[in-house]
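Query structure, 743 tokens:
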């Protein structure tokens, strides 16, 4: 049984009587224990980051944590995934300890199932968020989130630390791929779809919006380093996705580990209380990120000790501390309340929210026990959605050269004949297709890969037939000397095409920090060497962030971005290369041409001034929303019903589309607005609407778009969301229509 529809709107009220009755029976120790979250590694046999195998609860540690210290929440997985059976052992074991404490309040278990159940053996893994964003398909995002919920709930886990609603506006950031890309509207709509999928599906669980907020736009591009983001920009770009998901009823929020304008977010009362609670009306649970209260005095140096750090974070507005390895927070908070520095009524606020969340998730009815193991869902139920998401994420960026079978056609699709030679550092790796948070935190351990899921070479062989696919393996750190081996193998094979699988191996968080955004290692040397052979060459990027490769871009006839497409990504790439699927993925970010030229699509006019003072300075490798299909759809018409509108009006735009090719095409229609003059420097473009439409071969159709004038807004210097009267235009593709907004 899942929990009831778990949106927070009104939930607090509907559980108030029950929750208050529990609260009244709780001691201070019970309450502070509810606000404490430990990692599984802290209560398992062995060392926290290296539990003894087979992993199991340590009786003494578990009792000390869950009974003596009344810890109310546990997270994570030890240090690798587990089978559903093992999850049941852990969750049931933990709840048995919970039942031994006076309050018997069940423990709330949380996990990072960020692209499918990433810490559950043989789970159905879907594309990482950056790939889901490339589908621009909310239904697919919602369906896959529902599937994730069903699987982790089947393990007994009702709380998912997902989605990430930070923006991917700096591709240097090692968590870029965990986002829905650079645009606030795209991230908002995808985030709402994911929250709805987790919380409103057949088996609801709790979503977590993370990491609130302004995380991922640091000065250095490195994770958890200082960011300077004025409030206006915070509200313009980084708040909308969180606001939309809060309005959709998200049950919890995780806090940004970083500092913004010199203030660690975990101590920022304006953010965590005035803005989040008072302005946005968020009623759910605010949980810290990993060890972030302790980091206030060990990393940020804003507190002299644990106790002061605890006080600062509680006063700022956190409800639960992901400690997660000790009782420092618990002891500090008990002392603070006992000495009167923190009121018990403040503690009650947080405990009430935690109890409401547990009630909403049905923990008081089930004791937090996992559902019957025999009811664990069959993975076949979810595979089609995962495969479809992988397929719709694949983005065709370039398609030139000559197809060997039909030279008047570009190199792709390869069709049913021709031999492929496949090589490159991501060609033989299922880990590369999945990225971080897969089986283990960094996603690099092959031992946890889903049995039977193919890497790219295997998927190509399955799709094209083993006679058509020859490959040569390269590790990510291959030496230039190994390129000779590859060239010799190509000469011996005499293929019709060469497929180069490029990109990155998995990483996340600080380990993924990187000094240089360029395609690294000897991948460029490999591209140059293969190019000299004069064979049609297809580059396939399997990576979490757009690595730059401008100097070798001309040496590849076709280029495909696969992002991190998950377990079904190999076959998705194969279907696009072969042509059985007409690629529909579109970039959710701007692809920089050079390592230090990462400017987003919604940049300002001054960012377009080139060295010759013409407006040719913005020159990305590929633009936001770029992507090709095997049959192009042209915008043939763009019309408005009127040329001036009043505030409060709705703009009705007619978009004429014609598919000039002979394949049905899943087309993305984006409507960008241009504000000619504004009190804040206007962006050259702002995405205001998007939708996907299927356009049949040689079909012409028109799409009617309704856009309320108020959606042309921006945040002004007084921090108000406004639409200023004046001249505007709307652009779809290369067509633009002008209109006025009246006083
Ligand atoms: C990590 C991440 C966060 C994750 C949490 C629990 O440090 O920042 O995204 O949910 O710890 O694993």
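Result returned for the query:
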């Amino acid at each position: 049984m899942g929990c009831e529809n778990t949106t927070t709107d009104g939930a607090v009220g509907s559980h108030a009587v029950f929750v208050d009755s529990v609260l009244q029976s709780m001691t201070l120790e019970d309450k502070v224990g509810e606000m404490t979250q430990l990692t599984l590694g802290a209560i398992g046999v062995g060392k926290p980051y290296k539990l003894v195998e087979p992993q199991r609860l340590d009786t003494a540690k578990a009792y000390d944590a869950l009974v003596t210290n009344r810890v109310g929440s546990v997270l994570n997985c030890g240090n690798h995934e587990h089978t559903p059976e093992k999850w049941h052992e852990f969750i049931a074991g933990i709840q048995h300890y919970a039942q031994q404490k006076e309050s018997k309040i069940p423990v709330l278990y949380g996990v990072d199932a960020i692209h499918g159940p990433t810490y559950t053996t043989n789970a159905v893994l879907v594309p990482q968020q950056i790939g889901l964003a490339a589908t621009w398909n909310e239904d697919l995002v919602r369906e896959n989130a529902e599937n994730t919920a069903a699987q982790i709930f089947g393990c007994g886990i009702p709380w998912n630390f997902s989605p990430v609603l930070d923006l991917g506006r700096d591709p240097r950031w090692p968590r870029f791929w965990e986002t829905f890309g650079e645009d606030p509207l795209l991230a908002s709509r995808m985030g709402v779809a994911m929250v709805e999928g987790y919380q409103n599906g057949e088996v609801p669980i709790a979503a977590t919006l993370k990491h609130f907020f302004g995380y991922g736009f640091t000065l250095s591009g490195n994770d958890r380093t200082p960011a300077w983001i004025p409030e206006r920009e915070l509200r313009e770009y980084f708040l909308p996705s969180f606001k939309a998901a809060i309005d959709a009823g998200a049950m919890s929020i995780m806090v940004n580990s970083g500092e913004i304008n010199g203030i660690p977010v975990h101590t920022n009362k304006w953010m965590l209380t005035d803005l989040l609670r008072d302005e946005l009306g968020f009623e759910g649970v605010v949980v810290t990120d990993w060890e972030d209260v302790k980091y206030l005095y060990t990393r940020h140096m804003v507190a002299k000790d644990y106790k002061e750090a605890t006080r600062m974070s509680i006063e700022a507005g956190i409800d639960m501390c992901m400690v997660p390895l000790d009782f420092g927070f618990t002891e500090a908070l008990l002392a603070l309340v006992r000495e009167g520095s923190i009121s018990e009524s403040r503690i009650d606020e947080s405990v009430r929210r935690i109890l409401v969340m547990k009630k909403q998730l049905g923990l008081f009815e089930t004791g937090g026990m996992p559902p019957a193991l025999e009811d664990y869902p069959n993975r076949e139920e979810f595979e089609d959605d995962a495969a479809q998401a992988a397929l719709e994420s694949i983005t065709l960026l370039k398609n030139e050269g000559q197809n060997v079978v039909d030279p008047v056609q570009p190199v792709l699709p390869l069709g049913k004949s021709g031999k492929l030679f496949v090589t490159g550092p991501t060609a033989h790796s299922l880990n590369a297709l999945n990225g971080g948070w897969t089986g283990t935190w960094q996603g690099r351990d092959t031992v946890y890969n889903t049995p039977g899921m193919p890497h790219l070479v295997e998927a190509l062989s399955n799709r094209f037939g083993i006679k058509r696919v020859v490959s040569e393996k390269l590790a990510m750190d291959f030496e230039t000397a190994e390129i000779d081996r590859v060239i010799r193998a190509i000469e011996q094979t005499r293929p019709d095409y060469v497929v180069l699988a490029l990109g990155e191996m998995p990483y996340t968080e600080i380990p993924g920090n990187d000094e240089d955004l360029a395609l690294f290692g000897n991948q460029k040397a490999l591209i140059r060497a293969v190019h000299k052979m004069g064979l049609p060459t297809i580059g396939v990027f399997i990576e979490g962030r757009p690595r730059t490769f401008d100097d070798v871009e001309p040496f590849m006839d076709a280029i495909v971005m696969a992002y991190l497409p998950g377990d079904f990504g190999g076959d998705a790439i194969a279907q696009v290369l072969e042509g059985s699927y007409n690629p529909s993925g579109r970039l959710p970010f701007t692809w920089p041409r050079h390592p230090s030229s990462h400017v987003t699509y919604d940049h300002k006019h001054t960012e377009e001034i080139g060295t010759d003072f013409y407006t040719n300075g913005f020159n990305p490798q590929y633009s936001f929303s770029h992507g090709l299909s095997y049959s192009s759809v042209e915008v043939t018409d763009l019309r408005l019903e009127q040329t001036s509108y009043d505030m409060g009006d709705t703009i009705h735009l007619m978009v004429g589309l014609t598919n000039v090719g002979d394949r049905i095409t899943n087309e993305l229609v984006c409507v960008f607005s241009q504000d000619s003059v504004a009190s804040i420097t206007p962006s050259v473009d702002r995405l205001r609407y998007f939708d996907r439409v299927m356009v049949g071969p040689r079909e012409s159709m028109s799409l009617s778009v309704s856009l309320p004038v108020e959606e042309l807004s921006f945040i002004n210097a007084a921090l108000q969301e406004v639409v200023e009267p004046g001249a505007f235009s709307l652009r779809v593709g290369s067509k633009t229509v002008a209109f006025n907004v009246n006083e």
